[in-house]
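Wait, mind explaining this?

_____
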Amino acid sequence: MATSVASVESTASLSTDLFYDILRRLDGPTLATAACTCAAFCSISREERLWENVCSSMWPSTNREDVKSLIASIGGFRKFYADCFPLIVNKEVSEYHWNKYLEYPEEWTEAEYYGDMDEFETISPSDFVSIVDIRYKDKAICSKVLWGIPNANGFNGWFYNCPFRIDILTTYAARDDDGEGEVTLSVSDGLPPIFSMEKERKDGKLWKELRDGLRLSWIVVNKKMKQAANLASWSPLGGQRHWPTDKDFVIRFGSVLPAKDILPCQVVECILSMKFRVVHTEEEGVQTTLKLTELSMQLEDMEGAHVNGRNSLLILKEALSCHRSKNYSEVLESCHLYSKVQSELKEEKMRSESRLDRLCILSGIAAFITFCYCIL
């Protein structure tokens, strides 16, 4: 009888080890699905080490010891993955129409526009941490972690009333002396060879490869609130090639964030910009090489105006608890809807200004005719 019990216990132990070995090889979505299949998988899937492996594979920045300590302090890797794998979706964009926020309402006082001071005093730029990872064709090419928000010292400083912007590479360049902040892409990473910029301008092969291959994750963590969210769209939403110079390529990622009770427009766009510059082409006798020259975040309202630092902190705080989805098509639909509404707003504003211009011209002509009539 004792031998039989020992055999059962041994088999159970062996099964647990085998189950763990199976689960540790899965990616996040598959692991979450497997946890729902049986009690054994459900129990084992609660193991933090499994989710640490998943996060490490998806976001190489989480391999850092300081980031591991941060994640442990806000609830662990399982919670971190649940917060950051789904992307932000804002379904309220369609509820706002241009005539609701074309002009800032008169009842908005200056204090209201710049936010609730009591609420703002609970937010500090040092509470935010940016965890950024870039992949090209599933290969990690850049991992950065930024503690706090640069140049945000002093409550009444310029940061709070000037346009909000975080530039990861500029910050790292100021801190690093060994060139660690430099990020490059070359033919060995999967880039197509470029023999001349003139040919690239015509066929756009490099531009297409960049748009199809680049992926960005920009996770913002609030240490005090113990919350995190991924503000990136994962794949590019748009961009511009050969701008501002012939050798520059700008790729844009982002998300639509709620700004209810913070700004009159109620929603803003979080713009994450990535700029690559061609530093070598095949005609120079070396393989095609691109250098990452910009990696930045900024917030813009519906009219394209930059949001100041004070309101940006309030918006980032709200973004950490807004709706998210694992359905990527739903995320893209939300971003495209915002762009559509924004375009309609700009068109309506141009039509309104055009009508005003015509009215001014007609008024001027009428005044001139009246003046001439009075003289004669």
